[in-house]
Amino acid sequence: MRKYSILFFFFIASLTATSQIKVKEKVLSPDGTTTTGRMLNDTLNNKPIEEITVELDGKTHYTDYKIISFLKDTTIVDTTLSIQKERVYNYIRKNNFELLPLHNVGQTFNRLGYDFSSPDIFPEIGVKAKQFNFFKTEDIDYYRVPTPTTELFFHTAIQQGHVLNSLLTANVNPQLNVSVAYKGLRSLGNYRNALSSHQNFRLTASYTGKANRYMMRTHYAGQNLWNEENGGLTAESLNFYTTNDEEYRDRERMETQFTDAESRLKTRRYYLEHGYNLWYHPKDSVQKQASYLQIGQEFMHKREFYTYAQEKSNDLFGTAYQSVVSDSTAFFRTDHGAFMELKAPWVLGKLKAKAQYSTFDYGYNSVLFLDDQTIPARINKHNISFHARWDASFKTFGLQSEAGQVLEGAFKGHYLKSTATFSKDSLFILQATLLIKSQAPNFTSQLYQSAYVNYNWAPILENEHTRFLGFSLISDQLLDAEVSLIQKDFYTYFDENSQPQQFSDILTYLKVKAHKELKWRKWALDNTAMYQKVTQGADVFHVPDFVTEHTLYFSSDVFKRKPMYLQTGITLKYFTNYFADEFNPLINEFVLQNQTEIGNYPLLEFFANARVQRARLFFKLENLNSLWDPGKYFSTPTQPYRDFTIRFGMVWNFFI
Prior knowledge:
- The longest helix has 16 residues, at 2-17.
- The protein has a 22-stranded antiparallel beta barrel. Strands 1-3-2 form a 3-stranded mixed beta sheet, with no helix packed on it. The chain has a 3-stranded antiparallel beta sheet with strand order 5-4-8, with no helix packed on it.
- The chain is mainly β and 656 residues long.
């Protein structure tokens, strides 16, 4: 990863060193500062001198730097600093309010809350503990920028390592954009055999024809998520930790269950979507939105390999057929889709229909014959499905509905999701969401082979049936709040023996979440609270009753002429005690346990963040209260949370 980091920095340096830029005028940027011309479309006066004069033509605006999501929602490149930026300044670049990380950067997260609102109905490989730093198809962004644009993300790790995410995107011409991104992570950790090493490479291209007849977007993602695994602390070391034994404050002295295991998820994915407009009518003074009828094709192929290797089998997982463990699981999936999309005023928005043929190939190289059962080698199936989506709006009302049905194939399933929206000017937005779906469990639950005797299964499982009803309020003046009620039939989980099971009754889960920020002059108090209740199925589905997070911070421009904007404060996070699931590194899943509770303690952090032009600087002191109240912070019953840690880093945008 160091090699890629050095090369990228030299590449950026070479771009910025090729010329000295003199700006003849300044304009206002989104953060209220004046730009230096790098965000603007300029004309170069090619004089044979070292200094290049840039004359801004006034046609380019910061809103021209666009980020386009998989669902084709558009945002702009944002170089401001806010408390929301502090929330997502972590290695997964997401708000982790409902997550509890293990001690090392690059390790997995335990869950403090769950989201069951996804309409996906096809099974995936599983190994869900490996998925947090994984870029799925819907996580890939596309871009449209008037000048080459770069974002560098840097974050220190836990001993001997760091996180670096670098992105470079440019429009070759107004129609064609390309981007390349690389994310590298390496962190040694404080405990034995806890090294993390991740690589995520993404390459995208998007094209729109001059007459808006043809469009195309494609991406390639290659990812390698490798971790050393130690199985958690031994019983003796857990006692040293909880009693704060002075001889074991150096965490590397503590014994772990093993020191010779590693796991890896290695994937490659190719995606292509392109379409042709049979007719296209651009927006004008009469027609406020463009109208078109488009036919197109979607293609996706991915190859995923999960491996677990151990030099010597360990009694933690029971007996083994052989002393050296080398488990390997492969999963291949290919989707071919044909769609038609209509956008017109008389459908109140956009209507899309798609037919899809999918193939699934999961498994191992050979059949396993046991004394009491035979474990097949592979699951090799196909599906034919139909999907539809309708996005409509009328005055202050909106409706997003999507549905899908497996017409033929091995994995039966269906879904219906609808979200109704009502907005009142800029005062508030009300939303109501209904989801009904049936989905086959992930392949890890359906079939698994291992060198460990107890980790070989091929059960017959029912589809999980999910019913989700949610309501939300979004209002800067009032508060943000959401209420969701979830019911699941045949909820699939891993029991205390790490065996796949299905809950025979109906799991019922209530979740209430609210957020409100209070401001006074340069001070602000940002509050998030969540209440959860499992009214049925609490023996197999564990969440804390309450989770809260409060941040008191100060914001102000500093120094003469305001060259720096500063935000500094403290964050306190708390969750009530609960029977947190245990992490099983062999299958990279969280498994049920009902013996040990964690929680009922605060996690206190201090941060000082600053913005200088288009660079955001971050400094953080994590788990401050462990300095005076140690030995009680856990992510799982056998995996301690990180000790007091000093972290820093930056996010820097370049507009060339």
